[in-house]
Amino acid sequence: MKLEGMTALSLGAKTVLNSATELEAALRFIGETRYHSLHPFHKLLHGGKLNKGQVQAWALNRYYYQSTIPIKDAVVISRFRDRNIRVEWRHRIEDHDGNIGSEGGIERWLKLTEGLGLDTAYVESTEGILPATRFAVEAYVHFVRDKSPLEAIASSLTELFAPNLHEERISGMLAHYDFVNPDIMSYFSRRLTQAPRDASFALDYVKAHAKTPEQREAVCNALIFKTNVLWVQLDALYHAYVEGHIPPGAFVPKAN
Amino acid sequence: MKLEGMTALSLGAKTVLNSATELEAALRFIGETRYHSLHPFHKLLHGGKLNKGQVQAWALNRYYYQSTIPIKDAVVISRFRDRNIRVEWRHRIEDHDGNIGSEGGIERWLKLTEGLGLDTAYVESTEGILPATRFAVEAYVHFVRDKSPLEAIASSLTELFAPNLHEERISGMLAHYDFVNPDIMSYFSRRLTQAPRDASFALDYVKAHAKTPEQREAVCNALIFKTNVLWVQLDALYHAYVEGHIPPGAFVPKAN
C-alpha cells in the first residue's frame, strides 16, 4: 500500500480506509516511511559515527522521553472506564517504573547514562536537555489526555517498529563504541520482549475499535503524530550536537 | 546583572532575587541573552541572506504561532477571577482576531504569507508546518493553562524585547528583499505600538505580584520557557530550510 498526500500532520484527504486490513496496511506504511529508524541521527549512532559526547547528548535527552512514558501511560489508563483495558495497560507502568527492589526501564536507562559517564543527578534534573525534547515529549502526554481514548492507544503503535530498531542499535553500538557494553544496553535487550506484546495488543485494539473510515484516519494520524514526537527529538539532537548549534543552557559535552 | 548557572530550563539554584528591581534586572538579562533576536536564523532573515522559499517557510510556520496567540490569551483570561485583569487582557485577543469588518494581527499575517506567494488555504490548514513548530506553540498554550496565573502572565514578557526586533525586521526585510513591501509588513508595524503597552502591563504585574524569591524565580523561569518556545521554532526552521533537513510531509519550497 502507498499513501498519497500524507502531510507532516495527517494522512491527507485522498486516503479512505474501508477495513481493518486497510488500516493495518496504512499503519505499516506510515512506519516504513516515517519511523525514526530512518533518521540520519540513528544512522550515525548505530554506525559508530558519533563521539562519546554526542552519544551522551542522545542518552541524556532520551532519558526525558523514557522517564515520561509511565506518566503518559497513567494518563492513558485514566481515559478508560473499562477495567479490562486498565488492567492490560497497567503493566506498561510497571515495565518502566519497576517495583521496590526490582529495576524497571528507567533504572536501566540510568545505567546507560551512568555507563556513558553522565552524572545521574544531572540526568534526572533534566535541566540540560534540549527544549525541543521537552516540548515533543510533553506533546505526547497532552495528546493522550486531550484526544480520544482510541487515539491515545493508537499513538503507542510505534512499538510495532521498535524491535528491529533496538536489535540494530544493540549490535551497532556494541560493535562500534568501546564505551558501550551489554550491561549498559540492558534497556534495549529487555524491550525486545516487552514491546511486541504491547504492540500486538494496541494493534488488535485499534483494528477492532476503529469502525469507520474517519476513526481509521484518526488512528493513522495518531501514529503520524507519534512518529513526529520521535523524529523531532532526533532533528533537535542532530542540529545541536552534529551541526553544532547547541541552544542556550543545554548540555555541552566535554571535549573528547 | 549577570545570572550565573542559568540552564536550558531555569534560572538555576545560585540566583536569589530579593526585590522587584532585582526581578526586572534578571528579566532583562534573560532577554539580552536568550531572546530569539540573537538566533542565527534571524540574522539571515534580516540580512537578506535567505531566498524566497526560506522566507516562505518562516512565514508559514510563524503563522501557526500567530494564530494560536488569541487561543493562548483566552486561556490566560480564564485563569483570573479578577475582572480587572480579564478586561485588561481581553484587548490582546481583539488585537489578533480583529472584529467583523476590521482586520486583526492574524489577517495581517495572512497578508504577509499571501504577499510571499503562499496559498492562504494551505497556510490556514497548518498541514505543512514543522512538527517542532506545532509542539513548541502548543507547549505555550499548555503552559498558561497548567502553571500559576502569575507564570501565565510572565510568559508573555518576551514582548518587552519585541519592538527592537520588529524595527530591525521591517527595515532589514524591506531593504533586502524585492518580494517584500510595506503593505505585507503591516503586522510588524502595527505591533510596534501594541507590544509596548502589553509588555509594560505584564512587567508591572509580575513586579507587584511576585512577592517572594520563589515567585520571582518562577517568573524568570516562565520567561526562559517562553524564550525556548521562540528559539525552538527558529532552530527547526534553520535545520529544515537552511541546513536542508526537511522532515517528512513538511512544506517544500518551489525551486527559486
Automatic annotation (TrEMBL), chains A, B:
Q: Which domain of life does the protein's organism represent?
A: Bacteria
Q: Which reaction does it catalyse?
A: 6-(2-amino-2-carboxyethyl)-7,8-dioxo-1,2,3,4,7,8-hexahydroquinoline-2,4-dicarboxylate + 3 O2 = pyrroloquinoline quinone + 2 H2O2 + 2 H2O + H(+)
Q: In which pathway does it act?
A: Cofactor biosynthesis; pyrroloquinoline quinone biosynthesis
Broad class of enzyme this protein falls into:
oxidoreductase
Listed A to Z, the keywords are: Oxidoreductase, PQQ biosynthesis
Q: Which Gene3D superfamilies match?
A: Heme oxygenase-like
A GO molecular-function annotation: pyrroloquinoline-quinone synthase activity
Protein EC: 1.3.3.11
What biological-process terms (Gene Ontology) are attached? pyrroloquinoline quinone biosynthetic process
Q: Which residues form the Thiaminase-2/PQQC domain?
A: 25-235
Q: InterPro entries per the record?
A: Haem_Oase-like_multi-hlx, PqqC, PqqC-like, Thiaminase-2/PQQC
Q: Which residues form the signal peptide?
A: none
What the protein does comes down to:
Ring cyclization and eight-electron oxidation of 3a-(2-amino-2-carboxyethyl)-4,5-dioxo-4,5,6,7,8,9-hexahydroquinoline-7,9-dicarboxylic-acid to PQQ.
Q: What family does the entry list? A: Belongs to the PqqC family.
- Name used for this protein in its record: Pyrroloquinoline-quinone synthase
What organism does this protein naturally occur in?
A: Bradyrhizobium erythrophlei
